Amino acid sequence: MKDLSVKLGSLTLKNPIVAAGGPLAGTVQHIKDCVDAGFGAVVTKTASTVWYLQRYPRPLYKLIDYKKDSTNPYFVPNDYNWMHREHNSVYPPQQFAKIIKEASPYAKEHNCAIIGSFSARFMEEWIEIAKLYEEAGCAALEINFCCPFPPDGLAKSPDDVRVGIYYTKHPEEGVAIIKKLKEFVKIPMFVKMSPDGSNFEQVAKQLEEAGADGVTMFANNKVMRVDIETGKPIDYGPAPGTGPGVKALSLRWVAEVSAKCDFAVMGNRGASTWQDAIEFLMSGASAVQYCTPVMIRGLVYVKELLDGMGKFMDRRGYNSISEFQGVAMRQMYSNQDLVDKVKALYAEVDYSKCSGCKRCSQVCWYDAIKVAKKAIIKKQNCAGCSLCSQVCPVNAISMHERDNDLEHFQAMSSAHPELVPDFYPEGEKK
Ligand SMILES: Cc1cc2nc3c(=O)[nH]c(=O)nc-3n(C[C@H](O)[C@H](O)[C@H](O)COP(=O)(O)O)c2cc1C
Ligand code: SF4
Ligand code: SF4
Questions:
Q1: Is 428 inside any structural domain?
Q2: Is the beta carbon of 387 within 6 A of some atom in ligand 3?
Q3: Which of 60, 106, 140, 406 has the most CB atoms around its CB within 10 Å?
Q4: Which of 308, 331, 354 is the last residue of a domain?
């Protein structure tokens, strides 16, 4: 068996695949099932001190763009979208601690870390529950600054909105909570953020300085879809959503925060295949959480994720995850790097391959391509965007480096050179 172990703050996980907070781990039996499935760690269903919002809006779960295959009941498309309206656990955190206490010996025995997730309104509540969860046997805490509830109208008092996402939107209060909790608990604390915040790299740095051991990026935020045949919003209007399509946003912040902070980043939201786990790890993540991809495929999917990662590592000759963790994050270019180090391009056609189909001219937005029998590219107009070479069905277009930046700028402004007169040094104006 391949060594898939990773460091997550001060914890060592046997593998980086983590059950994300949610229905996967809301009961004693489900936590044990997650352990058996092979997860490296299990984040429990979030319990919060506004637990009495148990009047969940319906419908609970909605799969969108989900193409079934009647010949294969186990086929799951990888381009589905998901909306849901599940609140926090119906068990208050003081009760949920009992669930953790009962499940934690089994998890420890099988080397699976239980990460207790909770959210609260007041500092006393945060402290009380953090201590309770530590005593119950959690290996770490996931501080929920992310859940997009309570929804409109259901809150019983104005204080009920001071949970979950409230703290992503008021990061200074979140930072104060982490600082305080550090005085009361010894186990590592990871902060789960909502993608509805901003300046994540700055907020993450502040959380790190306050003593957090890492962040989880991200939970769901509300999305909207429309059935254009009926004109109705799908699933009655905006609801928290996820799906493989949002992976790129999560990856972006995992990479940027990993580059800025020394603490652990757990990737979440949009990872659905084993390849996605590798992408998150290469972007700097220490571990990768999965929720809906496992919910719709069943717990057997965890083994598939682990097998896929192991085979990839064999094929690439990696002996451990640390050999490739963060490799992509460390090779990111700034805009300044791109100007200084990456040459401008121009396109050229291989006439022996060109069929004259005109596909390239449809996508050239710099008026550089004319197609008679074959495509002709006007080099002095070509901005080097490379779109033509990417769509050409017979790969007849290749890209080449330009000698100088001025030529590139002249090509990009060839339609209206008089509008950028100051750019050109004397004598070089068209
Ligand atoms: C039905 C459902 C319930 C969820 N409940 C919680 C929760 O209690 N606590 C939490 O932090 N995140 C919760 N989430 C968010 C997931 O943990 C996860 O962040 C999100 O689904 C994105 O990951 P995915 O793309 O792997 O599904 C829930 C998600 C779903 C779909
Ligand atoms: S897309 Fe390719 S094959 Fe078609 S005209 Fe352009 S260069 Fe020729
Ligand atoms: S690289 Fe871009 S600008 Fe140049 S010819 Fe192709 S599509 Fe046009």
A1: no
A2: yes
A3: 140
A4: 331
Residue 41 Cβ inside 6 Å of ligand 2? The answer reads: no
- Taking only the tens place, the pLDDT of each residue in 277-335 is 999 999 999 999 999 999 999 999 999 999 999 999 999 999 999 999 999 999 999 99
Q: For the chain, how many structural domains are there in total?
A: 2
Question: Does residue 328 line the site of ligand 2, with CB under 6 A?
Answer: no
430 lies in some domain: no
16 with 97, same domain? Answer: yes
Copy the structure tokens of residue 88: 């926090």
Residue 429: inside a domain, yes or no? no
Q: Measured in angstroms, how far is the CA atom of residue 414 from the centroid of ligand 1?
A: 50
User: Residue for token digits 């390239």?
Assistant: 360
Query: 355 by DSSP, 3-state: which?
Result: coil
> Which ligand has an atom closest to residue 221 CA?
1
349 contacts 374 by C-beta, under 8 angstroms: yes
Same-domain status, 40 and 188: yes
Instruction: Specify the residue with its C-alpha closest to ligand 2, atom 4.
Output: 357
Torsion angles phi and psi, residue 157, rounded to 5: -145, 160
The Cβ of residue 204 has, within 10 Å, a number of other Cβ atoms equal to 25
ipTM of the complex: 0.96
- Looking at 235-373, list the stretches that DSSP marks H as alpha helix, in order from N- to C-terminal side: 247-260, 274-282, 292-295, 301-316, 335-341, 359-363
321 and 231 together in one domain: yes
Query: In degrees, to the nearest 5, what angle opens at C-alpha 334 toward C-alphas 273 and 265?
Result: 40
As a whole number of angstroms, the distance between CA 270 and CA 237 comes to 21
